[in-house]
Amino acid sequence: MSCRGRIPTRADVSEQGGDTDVRAALRAEIRNICTRYPSHYWQEMDRTRAYPEAFVEELTAGGYLACLVPEEYGGPGLGMAEAAVILEEINRSGGNAAACHAQMYTMGTLLRHGSPEQKQRWLPGIAAGTLRLQAFAVTEPDAGSDTTRITTFAERRGDRYVVNGQKGFISRVQHSDLMILLARTTRRDETETKIGGLSVFVVDLREAGEALRVRPVETMINHETNELFFEDLEVPVENRIGEEGQGFRYIMSCMNAERLLLASESIGDAHFFIDRSTRYASERVVFDRPIGQNQGVQFPIARAYIQTRAAMAVRDEAVSLYDQQEPCGPEANMSKFLASEAAWGAANVAMDTFGGYGMAEEFGIERKFREARLYLVAPVANNFILSFVGQHVLGLPRSF
What we know:
Butyryl-CoA Dehydrogenase, subunit A, domain 2; Butyryl-CoA Dehydrogenase, subunit A, domain 3; four-stranded mixed β-sheet; 13 helices
């Protein structure tokens, strides 16, 4: 099956071939697109801290970022498995899918919990590429990973909510039309449970004006991240997703999708490092022999590959559960843990394999090395995943 020139749809799966054929076609086409954005393109984006506009525009025009939008709203109607393939292949090809991945994982909240009117209002534009939903605002400086401690407050005033507060490490705000926002609608000390009193909103950034102040945050990678300051930002009631006070449950759909998609990016990164290390170790000759002939070079690469395949197996299981709308919190978290650890392990193997050349920009290893480090601590630190598995999967006493 070929999908050249357009993303395949759910109809293609049933009419022309199975899921495997569609995913193979997706992989081939994403690789083809990425050949037009080689290493020097990403190096220039990284060096100048620029947004990869041309790359994102091509993905948008092809419908790839609308992968999860149902056909009734103009999208291809594919699943998380296909979305994972797209992001994995971008990173395996040396790109950075973080420039545009949010449009996929935010679908977890909008598609599963948005009203029919909300879907009709926003999804056709997202599918057509005229609307970007690239921003996801949950994290706050004083709350960190304890989402129940956020204090940004949305006060209901008639047919509007008025939002005041602050968010931190929120990416791609300058390159998005819409933003998913989690805010308190009831004070924490006034709720029956600590996860109560949180609500989800879709914010139209084009209408925010001076009520939303954005301050870029410089980081060690080109990630377009910001601090946000809300000062009497008005959001129409009809932009609230689901019931007031039930937002924590709704946002978890987004978080599970985020875990799975970022795991896929890490798997792509791991393969990038393994592919480059294998090629370099086969071609680099020192002491009259390829360095890959030495077990001290060969074994770490093989170990990285084995660990990556294991991460893929757990990711694929979690994706299957997600697409069947089955509970997948433990699997989504474990896949993110395994994939990020595999990518970081492969990154270090690549640095060892390339030696001093790994530090040189022209080889692309140092840039991807920095990017791979992020997912050990974001969007949730791996130690928190260990705590989650210990408590909720193994039944151990709560640690915090």
